[in-house]
Amino acid sequence: MNQQLVFERQVKPFFVGGLIRKILPYVLAIIASLAAAGLFIAAMGFDVWHAYVTILGTSFRTPNGFVQTLLKFVPLLLQALAFTVPLAAGKFNIGGEGQMIVGAIGATAIGILLKDLPAPVLLPLVILAGVGLGAFWGLIPGWLLYRYRVNEILSTVLLNFVSFQLLNYIATEVWADSAAGHPTTVPIAAAGQLPMLIGNPPLNAGIILALAVAAGIYIFTSRTVGGYELIATGANPRAAQVFGIDGRKLSLLALVLGGALAGLSGSIEIAGVQHRLIEGMQSNYLLLGIIIGLIAKGNNLAVPFVAFFIAVLEVGASAMQRTLMIPGEMVFIVEALVLLFVLLSDVIRRR
Amino acid sequence: MIFAKLVMLSIVPYVLAGQGTMLGGRTGLFNVAQEGIMLLGASVGFLGGYLTGNVWIGIALAVGVGGLAGLALAYFTTSLKMNQFVIGLAIFFFCVGLASLLYKVIIGVTLVPPLISTLPGIPVPGLSRIPLLGEIFFVQNWLVYFAIVLSAALYWLLYRTRLGLELRSVGENPKAADSLGVNTTRMRYVTAIIGGMLMALAGAYLPMVYTGTYTADMVKGRGWLAIALTFFGGWSPHLIFFGALFFAGIEVLAFRVQVGGRGIPYQFLLMLPYLATLLVMMFAFRRARVPAFLGQNYDREKRYQ
Questions:
Q1: For residue B163, which phi and psi values (nearest 5 degrees)?
Q2: Within an 8 Å CB–CB cutoff, is residue A158 touching chain B?
Q3: pLDDT tens-digit readout, B66-108
Q4: Distance (Å, whole) CA A213 – CA A77
Q5: How far apart are the C-alpha atoms of A290 and B281, rounded to whole Å?
Q6: How close is the nearest chain B Cα to the Cα of A149, in Å?
Q7: Among B190, B170, B188, B197, which Cα is nearest to B78's?
Q8: Per the CB < 8 Å rule, is A287 touching B286?
Q9: Is the bond preceding A75 in cis, omega lying within 30 degrees of 0?
Q10: What is the pTM of this model?
């Protein structure tokens, strides 16, 4: 077959037919949910057009808006991957925020305790401490599942609540910054902070780390034996077992890996953005991460794009709340509706 | 004695949400949206009670939206055959967003939180005069009595009636139930709706008894703990009721020791309910009897092993 034919038969249909068919449901879902949200906004007596422009446009109008979006994008991307990697094995990791918090605690602890180390040593240690503690926080539910068959949805979610208290304890008792009015620790050493890519508006190097990890996860799940076994376990545990794949062990590993990813989002928040542990730093990244993972239908190639879209919505939502006084929760409904419509498009296609 | 009385007061959200979970699970429908439905119930219940000045309207509205959430779960999973956990999580988000949105739109941001009057204790005539026990069990708000009666009624329904047998059969072996003429779809819809109602009522209990107002973090994982409780209680109404005593006991204990202040940082006491639950789960999951078809959708045209 000559190259022309290969292109005509395989490449072109993939990009023209396949890509459009893949993206079309998303586009329709977004339009439908924005329309539904528009009805809500109009019913509350606000200017719908203005609201749309603010939600979708804030990220692209000013450099500051765009950097804000990228800063939101990093934790959202990692939180979404922390959900989709275990999901590939059929396990639901609802513990991303807990894993992020203990990761942030680990990063902060190293950044404060070893503050005299030089940057080339301290910075990797700060990042790895977050990854390590996050992985440990994923290991607990993984092990409970492996050894005692404890439902992972429960164990991951319950550990979130443990981590909230842990954070509060550390930020009020251990390294508390008495000048702050809110539970906050003293800052980590400058040598433990991520370098800046742009000084003003400030954008740290965490985004490069996150994108590299996302690419690594995509390659792992789609191009390696381990990733294949993971997906096989999730798709049909019995069949996978027949072919000699230890599904229980893989589920354990998937939860540990998910915890490590969420832990990394914690260390990037500390080393790159906050430079200190602050109560409430987990924001609502967990819920958004799960929404992103589900909208992307667990496809790790789609996750970064969906995460970016959600980051745009989130930045737009806070701008909308500031300037138009429309509650930012509105955008949460939009996101839930996008998810619903994307899921429904599957049902329609099946029929 | 005050401890026992507080425990009885605190079992209600666990019992209601736990029984709601159990009811759906017994037909194979695993609802994981408790946390969201409870928060929505708290928000709607509070707003209804605050705006009309009548708690009953608040409770009725909360129960109504809970029923709608259950209906949505049943429709997407039972009729459209979508993954129960995915839909459960989607409903969870939707409810969390809607709960805070409603509060913000109607009340807005205020310095002093608006309050509703909490449900009063109603002494049961005669029984409340029994020394000690009377004060603990029979001078409570009416939802405590409701939780007790509900648990007993569910036990009777599930294990002593034909309907209960049919209901349980749907969660164990829907193919067999279907072939014997049990309407599995209707059974799942009904249990999902009633389950959602109970969860929302459990949520409405929080502002109406504990705080008198709504805050976005008021459920504090009780919805997730209710799932744990349901496993702990082996998906049986009577064991769920007694299990709720344990969950409520730990909650009250953590709170009281915190107030008492014994040198242990209070944050570690507040972890107690979650850590204790994880520990208990290690043993509960090995022994627990779980409905065989839990979490799966039944399709008449499919084969099952």
A1: -55, -40
A2: yes
A3: 999 999 999 999 999 999 999 999 999 899 999 999 998 888 8
A4: 10
A5: 24
A6: 6
A7: B188
A8: no
A9: no
A10: 0.91
Note the ipTM here.
0.89
CA angle at residue A96 from A91 to A99, to 5 degrees?
Answer: 115
Rounded CA-CA distance A317/A324 in Å is: 10
Minimum-distance CB partner of B277 among A149, A158, A340: A158
Listed by start position, the domains of chain A span 33-350
Report whether A175 contacts A201 (CB < 8 A): no
CA atoms within 13 A on the CB side of B59: 14
> Nearest by CB to B285, which of A148, A160, A169?
A148
Beta-carbon contacts of B177 under 8 Å, excluding residues fewer than 6 positions away, are B166, B169, B170, B184
Residue B303 corresponds to which amino acid?
R
Tokens linked to A246? 């230890």
Q: Cβ(B89)–Cβ(A321) under 8 Å?
A: no
For residue A3, with 0-12 CB atoms within 10 Å meaning exposed, 13-18 middle and 19 or more buried, which class applies?
Answer: exposed
Instruction: Kindly report, residue by residue over A213-264, the tens digit of the pLDDT.
Output: 999 999 999 889 988 898 888 888 888 888 888 888 999 999 999 999 999 9
CATH class, A33-350 region: mainly alpha
Q: Does A343 touch chain B (CB under 8 A)?
A: yes
User: Per the CB < 8 Å rule, is B101 touching A343?
Assistant: no
Quote the minimal CA–CA distance from A261 to chain B in Å.
21
Look up residue B79 and give its two tokens: 């009729």
Q: What is the dihedral of CA B95, B100, B105, B106, to 10 degrees?
A: 90
Q: What is the spatial distance between Cα B37 and Cα A254, in angstroms, rounded to a whole number? A: 29
Helical spans, DSSP H, in chain B: 2-25, 34-52, 55-74, 84-106, 133-138, 142-160, 162-172, 174-179, 184-205, 222-232, 237-260, 266-287
CATH of domain B2-110+135-287: 1.10.3470
Look at chain B and count its residues. 305
Most B CBs within 10 A among A329, A330, A338, hence the mutation to make, goes to: A329
